[in-house]
Structure formats: C-alpha cells, structure tokens
Amino acid sequence: MQVKAAKQLEGEAVGDPLAAAGLQNSLGESLLSLGHPQDAISLFVKSRATRTAQQEADIHRLLDQDKLEEIERFCSASPTATLSEAKTHFGSKFDYGDLRFGMSYLRSRKK
C-alpha cells in the first residue's frame, strides 16, 4: 500500500512541490522502517531533488562542479531529455540521484 502511494506522490499531484517533498521524506522514513530500503531511497532522492529545484537545498553540496557542468552540457544539447535518456547517455558515470539533482536544479533555473 505504501509503495503504491509513493509512486503516486509527486509535486503536481499534491499541488505544492515542497509539501510533496515533505510527504515523500516522511513516507520514505516509513518505508525504511517497514523494510523497503530501495523504495525509501527512491523517495529520499525525489524529495531532495524537489528541494534542490525549489532552491531549498544547495546543489553544490550534492554535486561537485565538474559533474554539474557535464550534466548542464547534456541538458543544453538535449533540452527535452528525460531522466532515463540522461542515464542512457551517461551510463554508469552518474547515478540516477546525481542526474535527478542536477537536471532538477538546472531546469528550475530556467523558469
């Protein structure tokens, strides 16, 4: 039940991205205590990416400048690329968390 709810919990569904990030974090803690660490980690990463995009977290504490610049070059060359497409492009060089943080941050700056 919690895992299904976690998949539906996005900023757009809640209406307030920071409220969604808070809920994602709380649900992640619940899933962690129930023995679902991978699902919890996914929620923690989404929550942090949202907070970074909303400039509630410092991107430079999450990614070093070289990584951010490389993600920025990719996003400039492929502005409509999805997270999955970025992961395919970078392979094992970046994990999903790095890409989610970087792409969320860069897209939030363009608004």
Task: Describe, in plain words, how this protein is organized in 3D.
The chain is an all-alpha fold and 111 residues long. The protein folds into 2 domains: 2-53, no CATH class; 59-109. Helix content is 76%, strand content 0%. It has 8 helices and no strands. It has helices at residues 2-8, 11-14, 17-33, 37-53, 59-62, 65-77, 83-90, 96-109. Helix 4 (37-53) runs parallel beside helix 8 (96-109). The longest helix has 17 residues, at 17-33. It is globular, with a radius of gyration of 14 Å. 27% of the residues are buried.
Number of helices: 8
Q: What composes the largest sheet? A: none
Distance between the first and last residues' Cα: 35 Å
The residue ranges in which pLDDT falls below 50 over 5 or more consecutive positions are: none
What is the chain-wise order of helices and strands? Answer: HHHHHHHH
Mean pLDDT: 83
Radius of gyration: 14 Å
- Give the total of beta strands: 0
Helicity level: over 70%
The SS-based structural class is mainly alpha
Principal-axes geometry comes out as globular
| Domains, number | 2
Proportion of residues in extended strands? under 5%
